[in-house]
Amino acid sequence: MKKEIVLGDEALALGAIDAGISCAFAYPGTPSTEITDFLIAKKNEFGIQAEWCANEKTAFEAALGASFAGKRALVSMKHVGLNVAADAFMNSAISGIKGGLVLAVADDPSMHSSQNEQDSRYYAEFAKIFCLEPRNAQECYEFTCKAFDLSEELGIPVMVRLVTRIAHTREEIERRERRAQNKLDEEMKWNEWVLLPGNARIQFKKLLEKQSLLEKKSTQFIEMKKGTGKGVICAGNAINYFMEVDSGKTPFLKISAYPLPMEKIKEFVKELNEIIILEDGYPFIEERLKGMLEASGKKVKGKLSGLIPLSGELTPESTKKALGLAVKIPFSVETEFIVGRPPQPCNGCPHVDLFNALNEAVQEQKNAMVFGDIGCYTLGALKPLNAINSCIDMGSSVNLARGASIAGTKTAIGVIGDSTFVHSGMPALAEAAKRKSNMTLIILDNSTVAMTGGQETIAKGKELMHICEGLGVEKEHIKVINPLPSKHAENVEVIKKEISFNGLSVIISKRACIQILKRLAKKK
Ligand SMILES: Cc1ncc(C[n+]2csc(CCOP(=O)(O)OP(=O)(O)O)c2C)c(N)n1
Fold first, then answer.
1. How far is the CA of 374 from the centre of ligand 1 (A)?
2. Which residues pair with residue 25 across a beta bridge?
3. Ligand 1 atom closest to residue 84's alpha carbon, by position in its atom list
4. What architecture (CATH level 2) is domain 350-520?
5. Residues with Cβ < 8 Å from 446, sequence gap 6 or more?
6. Which atom of ligand 1 lies nearest, measured to the CA of 417?
7. What dotted CATH number matches 221-322?
8. Of 77, 98, 256, 270, which sees the most CB atoms within 10 A?
9. pTM (two decimals)
10. For residue 55, which atom of ligand 1 is closest to its CA?
């Protein structure tokens, strides 16, 4: 048995390798990025394919295609990425899979690096698939191995749900022997994969019939100590906090898989009169048990009852408080002398020079509406730049500007990164071109996915120009500028001209990310 010290994300990646994957697909997103960073770095060593995709939907579909060809495939994303992949994801539960298909999805309670803290367990339940929730790096490894076996046994994708603390924990793990990869199997399954109503109805029934088996499987992922009085039901990361603070006397039921093992839950609560539910994320378990337990006269306490805050991640302190134990105020470096500071763009960041030019260009325009998007450039929304005014979901800047222009605003501007543009800005630009929208889109081409650590971007430089042209933007209104302080006045003029043009224009602001340049210089 080999032992290694790795991140939770890397343990999951190693689990996938030892389970015999042939391919891995992903779009970066904290806290899931390190899974695929690791697999790409190791792909030659392990003889697998691993790549960054244009977005989470294309990643999911590529993984499903590999599974249809009989191979085991891993697809990874952050929680909000599953919104993008949801169409493919939901329907893959109906079509079923051939080679094992595992979806690793990392939630971010407390929004350390996200726009929301949605809980992916609802998606697993929505699609009616099996979901595993590891509580440490060893379980990230083992559960991923098991998830591939279960996926093939049950004929459906299996989700492995992480939260930030588990994805980014660093621990020693023990590995098992590596399983051989599946053979290519080109048999097409017309009845299962062609989701015309006639097939889909039958497939959906099959999925419904599997549900009791799924629940049976989740009983294999519990640990129970029965007792009387007050007991605790905990899951995933919450198990760690419970074990850390418990005296060892409290009855407990540890849950690591969904759908919930209802028979075991009924057995556990039999002699209890109060149940505290500890979980990281939304009150998923509490919602499902509250009605049933309260109807049988038991008290249920957790996030819904107000015992634990509804938003933010679970902490050792909130767990202690929930269990009625004394809480020490955790050490904080913030004092009246050392105040928290918002994140800043790097020194030499090209986005800053673009924002300085944009701010000057829109100064004369009354009520210009400048919409932003998600990436390093979202920092342009903060002081002292105050250049953009929205960050909703990836790709949204294009349609927010288009919608505002349709509503009547004279100066509508979208600002989007190169990766975000390819991720989900392109369809919106095609619409804007078709409808001859009166707006300007600024694409920030720093030639990388900077926000998540500098992954490869799908299109940059000339490729971006060709894409815009192909989507229907008039060639004479696709301008390329170099956002350097020395070119400030020139750039202000280009922006002024294009935003006053009564039609659609695109400005590509092209200068490489300073971090990428530093890395290249170091390599040389
Ligand atoms: C649906 C979704 N997927 C992934 C992310 C994580 N994420 C935020 S911005 C971003 C890409 C940013 O790259 P780019 O648009 O090129 O801007 P840059 O950071 O390079 O300035 C990613 C992957 C997210 N917030 N939402």
1. 5
2. 51, 75
3. 1
4. 3-Layer(aba) Sandwich (3.40)
5. 350, 351, 376, 417, 418, 511, 512, 513, 516
6. 15
7. 3.40.50.920
8. 77
9. 0.97
10. 3
